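Figure-free illustration: sequence to structure, shown twice.
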Amino acid sequence: MKLHDLAPDPGSSRPRKRVGLGNAGKGGTYGGRGRKGQWAREGGGKKAYFEGGQLPFVRRLPFRRGFKSPFRVRYTPVNLADLEQRFPAGTEVTVEALVAGGILSGRREPYKVLGEGKLGKPLKVQAPRFGQEARKAIEAAGGECVATPAPDRRAILRHRRRRH
């Protein structure tokens, strides 16, 4: 199959209805626009947000500066206090362990280990991200920080769409 062989399925698309081409060709006289008025004129009509002359809703809202990306990745915080409470000494803390421990809701959920709380036992923690304080505290307790690749960005967005 070549590019010139591509065509829509028969009957799936139809040509646009050409109106106003005389009474013999159907759709003549007013061409489906009624008689007179704003909508009968060429270029007639209103802007999408026009509200009959009152101040449009968009302009009544408070002015917000800046831009917030809809694709921003929100990392779920996992604190040292959570690790201290749920895992015994010498445990390897992985995504599966965090999901089983009820800290994360799914394997694809992005998370970051933060330094809130105290850690008094050695743990081998695997995570895509670590806070500076968390890394210091884990290594001070005799543990190890292993950086794992973050989940695929598309998987994160799918996960977020499903949860929220």
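We now fold a second protein in the same way, so the two outputs can be compared directly.
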Amino acid sequence: MLLREYNIPVSGSHVVIVGRSNIVGKPLANLLVRREYNATVTLCHTGTKDIGFHTLQADILIAAAGKPALITPEMVREGATVIDVGINRVTDVSSKKGYRLCGDADPAVAEKAAYYTPVPGGVGPMTIAMLLNNVVEAAEVKI
């Protein structure tokens, strides 16, 4: 829905997903290769050798590995779309809570990316909105 809302073309795009979870990485890869989306998908993970080689080829880069700041600006192609699905709690003594939230992509990637979803404030609120949308759709189904 994020890609659709910002008119980011998926068809014919090379999408690199970093993360192989059963909740985000694998289902997203399966979704994006379907004919209706028609993307070429590369699925990487924290054990992939030279992740940067793959991420630099991405038109759309989706970070969902669960590792803070795994994706650095050097790993992002100029003008790419970066969607950071990761949410990590890292120690921050300057915070009241003693921690802060960050994503799998270093926020500095925003300087190279055409589009970038920050953490917090990007995919998280969209997830909640889509959950509520699905609840409304389910409630409207006539049995």
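Summary for the second example: The chain is about 25% helix and 20% strand.
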